[in-house]
Design goal:
Layout (H helix, E strand, L loop, with lengths): L5 E3 L7 E6 L2 E6 L8 H21 L5 E5 L4 E3 L4 H5 L4 H14 L5 E5 L2 E3 L1 H8 L2 E5 L5 E2 L11 H10 L2 H10 L5 H6 L5 E3 L2 H15 L7 H10 L1 H7 L7
Parallel strand pairs: 3-4, 4-6, 5-7, 6-8, 7-9, 8-10
Antiparallel strand pairs: 1-2, 2-3
Amino acid sequence: MSPAPKFLPSEAEPLISIVRDGPLFIMSMNDNENRFTVEFCKAICDGLDYIADVVDQEGLQEAAVVTRGQDKFYSNGLHFEKALAVPGFTEDHFMPMLNKILLFSLPTIACINGHAFAGGCLMALAHDYRVMRSDRGFMCMNEIDLPAPLPAGMSALLRYKLHPHVYRSVVLEARRFSGKEALSNHMVDAIAEGVDATFELSKQVARKIAPKAKSGSIYQLIKEDMYPEVSSRLMVGSSKL
């Protein structure tokens, strides 16, 4: 019998829900367009802490995390009205959340079921692996069209995760990449048609890599060594999460 779902910040306000599927922890973002606020970032971070605690308490040798959105959105980025109302939101809340995903102690797979714009694109890229729906949704960074500058931490993440010519198109052209285009440009690792097939393929990828969790803290240490510059730039502000 599978454990009951975990809702964060609470069952009455389920911004995030986590369910078990064998060795997999499925983290669903349930807030419509899944725009980032202080509460939403904290729920994601608390969810990752919850998963890490379960893995430690149960001594799991196989585990991986799959994140996904709902309907036509993976995440549509920052909630500008609420984000701008909080001084230091990007440095104190959003970028530390990206860093937590980037260096998480288990394999992470982003199931990009729909649009991943701006902050949603960054969140997906912070994962170890990405599976994207091929028939609907785009990955895009639209700061050049706002216009708004990219903080150094975000730029570092994009620069490390993307090939140079793709990075240029992403940040200077705000190009929208379909699933097929994202795959051909090595932004994602696999694509599938339809939301259900994308989710199933994401779980296949996750199950394949889940045995690497047996390395315990070594998995995280290796990632810390992979991304020292990115992590330091993402954590330039205070670390509250």
